[in-house]
Each structure stands twice: as structure tokens, then as C-alpha cells.
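Aspartate aminotransferase family protein, pasting as requested.
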Amino acid sequence: MHPLLRDDLARLPELLDETRAYAVRLLAGLDDRPAAQAPVRREPVPLPVEGTGLKGAAETFAERWEPGFAASAGPRYLGFVTGGATPAALAGDWLTGVLDQNPTSRADSTAPDLEREAASWLRELFGLPPEHQGVFVSGATMSNVAGLAVAREWLGERYGVPVAERGVAALGPVTVLSGTPHSSIGKALSLLGLGRSAIRRVDPLPGREAVDVARLADALEELGGRPAIVVANAGTVNTVDFDDLRAIAALRERHPFWLHVDAAFGAFAALSPAHAHLVDGLGEADSVCVDLHKWLNVPYSSAIQFTRRRDLQARVFANSAAAYLGPVGDDPDPVHLTPENSRRLHAVPAWFTLAAYGREGHAEVVRRDIALAELLGERIAALPGYRLLAPVRLNVVCFTLAEAPERVGELVTAITESGEAFLTPTVYDGVPALRAAFSNWRTTEADVERVAGLLGRLAP
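C-alpha cells follow.
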């Protein structure tokens, strides 16, 4: 054994204690660390020849890289709808690395069964029916990829074309209808060979991002019975608007289509009694995307993908050419259900935080974040120089500069440079804007007041 490896192994308890203490210091300093930092580009240094052992590597990391990292796990990081990591999720993530299980096969451990249990808990959390089965993937983009891959196979089933065997060229042109699709939908269609041009946007309701269901019905009628994919939104990025899922699902009585719902963070509305109606009909979807490193507050990367048609999912992702992985069968291992043959055990942090805090603990986070978003909306509406671009429907505040929206970029830079908060720029209905997205379990009213105070000081 290499002497540095031998030494680190001999001192591992001591070194892990030092790492734990370092992690505790980082967590304790989240409130003082800048919420975001203007990046200073660092060029790569040459690969070490001899190495320095774990202690030396940790010292180099602490000096060279850690000071430039943002407090993205902190309470005033309000960009990208990013959660933090609950204490239980963080512990679960550490143990994930310690145990280092590959959960794609039942051949050597019970790891796939833990994932199955965590998936069933999440299904209950979102109120999905038992026929929806879930698998863990790395994020919302991959969840959308997986769901739309199953949708592609469904289209092939309608045409009598086994797309997974013959390729997408045998399918012919595909129509994907959506009101306000997330950018990851285009990426997924590109990856799946369907092409970004397959998306046909359907007009939203006036002043909304939610699709006009009557216009959607017209678009389906124009297809003349040709099957399609409909991508509905349960929470749009800019204003957290929700399509009428039940009304859309009802259109399947007259038109053939696969209903994929992008509920990356909007699915968590099910945990708020005052907002649960927004996801009414989610269980009618054929596939559902939910991102877990958002409102579940588990570390990156973690998401889940649900579908009613696990048989089609296995047809797409089957790895049957490798005899050592076993047959697909009626109850396939995860290796036959996701794009990866090997991957991290994503489910452990989710399992830990659900076991530790239960439905009610996570519901409290959701309700509190919604209330905080509403509070910030009230503060911004009262500030001279700003105007809300949409009502605060759930956990995102979308606003702009009242007199000079074109200067939003300057405001974003000033906010970032202050270190007090991080908000992301966007464009809503052609107007440059900002988004403040609440999904962190640590955020409090005091944080909202600090952000509102900062915006007041930076107002033109």
C-alpha cells in the first residue's frame, strides 16, 4: 500500500474528526459567508506528483478553494430554487459516501430496497396513487429526460414501432405541446433525438404562465388523432404558475397524448393545505418530475421520476445485454430503469430527512417558506422603485425596477457584490426581472427583512 494511503488509513478516525470539526465551522459561519460571490477565475495548477495526504489536501482546499464558495446552503441564497441540507439529510449524505453503495442491482445489497421505500414515502408525500412508481435520478433535468423517454416509447407503442430497438428515426415527427416549458424540456428533447423544434408552444392564459386549456384542446384537435406528448407545469420558474392538471387530463377522453408533469418544486404545494389545490390532478399524469435538492432540502444531486408505465421504462433503459446484471423481469432492478448503469445511492439523504422529520416537519418548511415569500412580496410592493410582475402564488417573488427595468442586470450585480443575498435575473413577459425563490429550511423573517432592507438601499 502506498505510504500516504497507509498513513491516512491508520489515522482515519482522527482525520475524520478534523473534517467534522471543519464542516461544523463552515455550517456555523453560513450566516457570515457571502450568499454569493463574483467569481474570480483560477487556472488549474499541475497535478501533484507525490501528493500530501488527506490532511495536506484539506489544508490546500481550505486555502485555495473554500473561501470562494457561496453560502448556497444558507438562508438568503434565493436563486435557482435551491434548498439547503437538513441536519438529517447531511448525515445521510456523509453515510452515503462512507458506505459507497451502487444501488442499481439487488445482487449484493439491500440498497435498491431502501430506494424503493424512500420512493414510496415520496409518493405518499405528494399524494400520488400506488400505480405511480418512482426511481431516483440526479436532478430535475434527468427526471424530465427519463419521463420523456418513456413518453417517446409510448408514442412508439401507439404506432407499433419499438423505438428503443429501431431508433427515433422510425417514429417520424413528434409533437410536444406545452404552455411555458422549462428550459430542461428542450434539452431533454434534444438528448432523446426528438429535437427542440418538436415543442409547440400553446398560448397561456392572459397575464399568466399557465396554459390556456381551450387553446391546448384546439392544438390537439389540429393533430387529427395523431398521438402527442403534453408537458404540463406544476409550478413555472418565474411566477410558480400551475396548469389546470385535471382539466388537461380530461382532454385524454377525446385526444391521445402522454401527460408529463414537470413538478420540479411545485409538487411540494401538496404539503400546504392552502395550496394543495394547485396540484389537484397530479396523480392523473403518466409521468412526473420532482426535484429533491430543492424543497426537500437534501444535498445535490437528487431527484425522483414517477411513471405509471414501468414496463415501458424498462423497455427504454433495459441493460439486458450484460448477463451479470440479470434479466429485466417483472420487477426490474434500477439498472434497467434509469440512464446510469452505476450511480450514487441518491435515496439515503432523502430517506434520512423523511425518517427524521416526517411529513409534518417538511410541511412546516413548505408553509414557512410560502409565508416568507408572501412577506417579501409585501415589502417589495411597498418599496419605491420596484414593482411586482406577478402575484406571489407560492414561493417565488418576481419583480423588476419600476422605472428602468433595463438596469436589472446592474441591480443583480450589486446584490451579489453585497454578499447579503443572491437573486437570479430572468425575463418575464419581455420585461427584465429578478426572482427571489424560497426553499431553504433555515430562512426566517429576519432574513426577509435583511433582503428587503438591501433592496431598499439599492433602489434607484
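Note for the archive: Residues 308 and 340 are 20 Å apart (CA to CA).
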